[in-house]
Design goal:
- The complex is a heterodimer of chains A (282) and B (323).
- Chain A has 282 residues and is mainly α.
- Chain A contains twelve helices and no strands.
- In chain A, helix 2 crosses helix 6 (119-147) and helix 4 (76-106) crosses helix 11.
- Chain A is globular.
- Chain A starts with a helix and ends in a 17-residue tail after the last helix.
- Chain B has 323 residues and is mainly β.
- Chain B has one helix and 28 strands.
- Chain B has one helix at residues 2-17; strands spanning 24-29, 34-39, 44-50, 55-60, 66-71, 76-81, 86-92, 97-102, 108-113, 118-123, 128-134, 139-144, 150-155, 160-165, 170-176, 181-186, 193-197, 202-207, 212-217, 234-236, 242-246, 252-257, 262-268, 273-278, 284-289, 294-299, 304-310, 315-320.
- In chain B, the strands form seven sheets. Chain B has a four-stranded antiparallel beta sheet, with no helix packed on it. Chain B has a four-stranded antiparallel beta sheet with strand order 4-5-6-7, with no helix packed on it. A four-stranded antiparallel beta sheet of chain B has the order 8-9-10-11, with no helix packed on it.
- Chain B is globular, with a radius of gyration of 20 Å.
- The chains are: A mainly alpha (282), B mainly beta (323).
- Chain A binds chain B through residues 59-60, 63-64, 66, 71-75, 151, and chain B through 223-224, 251, 268-271, 292, 296-297, 304-308.
Chain lengths: 282, 323
Amino acid sequence: MSSVTVNRHHSGFSLGQYVTCLNGIVWREALRFVHQRERFVSALVRPLVWLFIFAAGFRQVLGISIIPPYETYILYEVYIAPGLMAMIQLFNGMQSSLSMVYDREMGNMRTLLVSPLPRWYLLFCKLVAGTAVSLLQVYAFLLIAWFWDIAPPPIGYLTVLPALVVSGLMLGALGMLISSGIKQLENFAGVMNFVIFPMFFASSALYPLWRVQEGSPLLYYVCLFNPFTHAVELIRFALYGQMNWISLAVVVCCTTAFMIGAIYAYDPSRGLVRRGPAGGEA
Amino acid sequence: MWRRCLLSGMAVWLAATSPALAFVAYVSNEKSNTVSVIDTDKWIVTHTIKVGQRPRGIEFTKNGKFVLVAVGDDDKIEVIDTATHQVVDSLPSGPDPELFTQDAAGKLLYVANENDNTVTIIDLEKRVRLGDIQVGVEPEGMALSPDGKILINTSETTNMAHFIDTATREIVANVLVDARPRYAEFKRDSSELWVSSEIGGTVSILDPAKRTITGKIEFNIPGLRREAIQPVGIGITKDGKTGFIALGPANRVAVVDATTHKVTKYLLVGQRVWHMAFTPDEKYLLVTNGVSNDVSVIDVSAQKVIKTIQVGELPWGITFAQP
């Protein structure tokens, strides 16, 4: 498969062909998600464990200060809900990248990449598919959380959607970028230790930044420059019908940067990692 | 047909989205010696009025023109003109006035004087003291029965609710309640009298006719020590179906089914929630949070805290003008 061939032809594709490609990739991802019920259950159980067990233990910790977008005192579980929504997307983004490594190992990716459509478009479709799956997970979580008295204003369920799309794309693009550097499936455990955990814990998902600043100014800056913090804050504000412009700017910029990085990394002629024949992908 | 449907739909939508009537709340700030004025349309403090020392009990006069505020350390009741937001006069109470109540006509004011073990009766028109009634130690809670015949005073140290005949100005009955009774409130139909006990951690339900305790409201908040649950302010809806009880340092307002006397919900508010007042349309309930220096707004029908507004230091009492 040559990218040169692809580049020569892609300008002549109709919109319908692009849509067919998008449909195919999103549908495949959706089918894969539906058939992997354990994945759906575990995607839900993970944040629910945090909500039901961890948040219950720390219930009395918060409720001492009012921070935007909240207009009154809130329980800890209300505070961490947006962080857990972002966590679902973070895991989903990484899971998508895991599936790309798997596809590459099994040779499925070859099938995808022989498509005559431009490679950046194929990667983008893959990203959209992953984000769509994460949206399903997040809304299922919100439904359960509603019974746990985490009830944002009704309009919030709508206004949070664009924020979830943007944050889902950012985390998916990050996952894609990382997956390009992983040669084998077994190496994925490293992603867990070096990406997911640090990103999640060094963010505003579990504790407000003013609290972090009181404890450690250095950690505060780490959290502040963590793109995941901004994904969480974007979701938090949107869930209450408000916009956090700084977070939006950071998330959009990071999405673009990660996406460009992933496209570059997946280009076999320039890729970040030179792949040998073992992976099966050119 | 479809036009009518559309029009009626728009009317419903407009009614649902149109803002509630704006009211004005007055909040006494015990430590900053001020009264904050809150506009319920914008939910902001529009004025801060300097008053005497240690303002606590606060109430509109029945004509809605003045706000009375008990300034305990100055041993008097100050009168605020709601048009000018200025203190224009004062009324003579006993030492350290705390809470007070008026008769339905707005002619008589009954004041609990914490340091004097008395209830002072003041003629609001002539602005003179008519006399004192000796009650228990540290009188605080004051409530007048809807027919105006019985005045209730709770004494914090004696742990009693005193039933006072307003005609003879004599105590006709004493009912022992749990430790440190702070506040008393009648249901509009006179079927029940609720008395909160701060240290006892309960609200006693009394039969005003038999003058006996018929039940108690108990509180239990998971994760909180029992000592942290200290009931103080009470609000009962006009229909007598729902009660709200401020639980002091528990930082919660308990929502109570006023027929079964069971707590149905705990609402998180600011620190050391103390007293409360409904907006005249009963859409909202405002509660004062003493330690966090703010007032939380509860949507009564949704039973949800929707907002918290910063006021002066140590907000204590709150009042709305009744239409």
